[in-house]
Amino acid sequence: MRGLMSQKLEILVSPFYCNTAMLLCQTALNLYAKGDYKNAAQICKFVSSFCIKKPHPLCKLESKYCYTAATYYEKGLIEKGEEYCKKARSICPRNFRVFGD
């Protein structure tokens, strides 16, 4: 019974995680466009913690890509960061709400 209740709660709060992730992702993309890679990468790592909580399998993979992108950006490997950021956004089930190219 407890497992079923936690699943229902996960489904109930997942739109909150997703909406927050979308808003923060757009903020990070704006920072990347301005060359503020350090702060944007911190936001992306935080965003990945929201995406992984969604029950959708693509969101879990997106979370991994987002975190990887942030790590590359932090290391100054901008092209690799962009590659993984694009991968993450391309598999996001709600990508139509995030702009960045």
| Number of DSSP helical runs | 4
Average pLDDT level: 87
Helix content: over 70%
Our Rg estimate from Cα atoms comes to 14 Å
Low-confidence spans: pLDDT under 50, at least 5 residues? none
How many domain units? 1
What's the overall geometry? elongated
Attribute tags:
4 helices; about 100 residues; single chain; mainly alpha
Offer a quick outline of the entry.
The protein is 78% helix and 0% strand. The chain has 101 residues and is an all-alpha fold. The chain has one domain.
Describe the protein.
The protein is elongated and about 45 Å long. The chain has helices at 2-33, 37-51, 57-74, 78-91. α3 runs antiparallel to α4. The termini are far apart. It is built from four helices and no strands. It has one domain.
Topology:
Elements: H1 2-33, H2 37-51, H3 57-74, H4 78-91
